[in-house]
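Problem: given the chain below (233 residues), write out its structure.
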Amino acid sequence: MVTVSSAQPSAPKSIFALSQCSAGSDGFLTVGCLTRGFSPADSLTFKWKAPGGKDLNTFVQYPAFGSDGDYTKISHIRVKKSDWNPENPYICEASNLKGNLTAASPAPTPDQPATVVLTEPTKKELESGTATFSCLARQFSPKTYSFKWFLDGKEVKNAIDTYDTRKKNASVTLYSATSIFQISADTWTDTDVKVKCEFDHKMGKQVREAQYTGMFSLEDCECFFIHNMFTSL
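Solution.
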């Protein structure tokens, strides 16, 4: 049995370009193109142009899906991130006999190193018998990261928790994270123990270290207050 569409042929109504947030381990990005609102299903084709206008033939396009008069189709290519130039993007064109639309691929989120801070316990907390350390990593990209804690040179696994927040600015998403480690106040104040936080990220490993000195300042209090505000976001 053959199904005949009752919808009139129509040009694509919208097109959206998509880009992978960060390159994979091989240094390549997947760049996509999504087109909606055309008919019939088999009428639309894609073309991709490299920076400079050269036609590309290494792209993939998938079968259309949807209903009469409102089909959607997707295509994508893989490009080297090192070849990316925000001022000269890759161009996707979707067309059928009724019309065509083009879209410029958006720039991927740039890799950005974190600002890492290690906060120490306040005098008031030590009087209550505990010593809490917070390792704050702010405004980094991509998202993948890990924290490690060391007590007097030996790695420990009992970090209390890790929190994630994100902030989107236009097309760029930056991430922030906090890891919390706690020991007894006596362990911190009665020995020469060192506490170390290690933040590992694509942009490099950052290490912050603290050792008890018996000195407290207004800055210590402010740093702990900043931590409380940060983890409440």
